[in-house]
Amino acid sequence: MPTHATIEVPNFGKVEVPTGLFIDNEWVESLSKETFSTVNPATGKPFLDFAHAKKEDVDRAVKSSRKAFKTVWGNNVAATERAALLNKFADLIERDAAKIGALESLNSGKGVRIAREFDVGDSIAALRYYAGLADKSHGQTLNHFGGEKFVYTLHQPIGVCGQIIPWNYPLMMWAWKVGPALAAGCTVVMKPSELTPLTALVMCDLAKEAGIPAGVINTLPGLGATTGDAISRHMDIDKVAFTGSVITGRRISVAAAESNLKKVTLELGGKSPSIIFDSADVEQAASWVAMGIWFNSGQDCTASSRLYVQEGIYDQFINALASKAKACAIGQPSDEATSFGPLISEGQRDKVLNYIESGRSEGARVVTGGQKWDKSNGGFWVEPTILADTTIDMKVVQEEIFGPVIVASKFKTEEEVIELANNTSYGLAASVFTNDAKQQTKLAHSIDAGTIWLNQYGILHPSVPFGGFKTSGIGRELGTYGLEAYQQVKAVHQNLTQTM
């Protein structure tokens, strides 16, 4: 089975891309020789076959990562050296940004401009942020024991980390996990989504070119039920970090607990509310909410998928949002103008359409969208959709759709909308649009979510922590909190005068 294939990439012609396993800085076949297939979401046609890593391949990768952790990485390398390598890695991604963006677009269905400028750009920013943070972490000195003893703490890397990333932001979720792990001194066994493994594999050659030692980043394409489960249960992996669905997050938590009780961080689903008060700037709020729900075609854990509008401006706001839906730049991923591409798969498209039909049957009003795009031509598009006049008991209000569908209803008072916003098992994000500063502060404190946007939506930064309340996750990514997630604290007691 070959470890590379040649594909046609718009604007780049024929490009050779990796399809094998990356272990110990070398491309290798899976021991079983098995492969799995991917599909181009814009055409519905076969895309690439990739090597399928099994339990034996995970063992190989873990041994490589453990060896690297004990010899050429971890506590054996100055943080400044790790920082320099991360910066060089980021420089190489920036050098190849146009090609990487084109590959990300082809594999995931994103508009090529969005993939290049946002996904690739934000990934570079994340690596550079953690390069800068690598030598800024420190412990405490506890010198309040008189002359008896001196105590200090060390922040040390956890060790070998399994990382399992989703298909909606294949490159950016890779950077969010690899950046802090390497900055902290951990080594990585990476499993990209079986739907979008391409760019995580492309990163491997750049890591090697940057000078990152063998075993520091091993990458294993494969299925969740095999490769992902083997990583979660492996007895020599010290931590697993996962972004994806609540159902899979629960399985990973169980597998981690049943094996070596490895540490777990989870960034899971969301059903994030956007709250629009009468005092809000309607046009601005509609623009922010539109981006929040239709960016990445609604395939976003923080999507502004629940909309609550104060009754005085309800009809005006719904009309404004409908105009934003009709203005979405829906089109082919290879078109520079496209900002709204297909959903990732046929199954995901059909799931979203079934949710829309469920909302319609339960009494929701379809304001716009609600169907396949008429120019889909075999691809997996669903039009930007607004379901208005929804009620709290509807399936589309309670469950995460993970598509370009927003559900809207009206409210009267602050107290009522706080109750509505928190009436969910999720707690990832929320937004509030109001010109009343006291109201902003009150709702920011009252809503159960890990991120609150006030008079904006969806803007993230590598320096700002991100994660969820309730079933939306455990732990935080990004910021200094993201680095701490790959460290463990050791307390050292140095005896000065105590005797037994």
Question: How would you describe this protein?
Answer:
By secondary structure, the chain is an alpha/beta fold. Helices cover 38% and strands 21% of the residues. The protein has helices spanning 55-71, 79-95, 97-108, 112-133, 170-184, 198-210, 224-233, 246-258, 282-294, 314-327, 346-361, 395-398, 414-422, 437-446, 479-484, and strands at residues 4-9, 13-18, 21-23, 26-28, 35-39, 46-51, 141-142, 149-157, 160-164, 187-191, 217-219, 239-243, 263-267, 273-276, 306-310, 365-368, 385-388, 405-411, 429-433, 451-454, 473-474, 487-495. The strands form six sheets. It has a seven-stranded mixed β-sheet, sandwiched between helices. Helix 2 packs antiparallel against helix 4 and helix 4 (112-133) packs parallel to helix 5. The longest helix is centred in the N-terminal third of the chain and has 22 residues, at 112-133.
List keywords for this structure.
single chain, alpha/beta, Aldehyde Dehydrogenase, Chain A, domain 1, Aldehyde Dehydrogenase, Chain A, domain 2, 2 domains, oxidoreductase activity, acting on the aldehyde or oxo group of donors, NAD or NADP as acceptor, Ald_DH_N, Ald_DH_CS_GLU
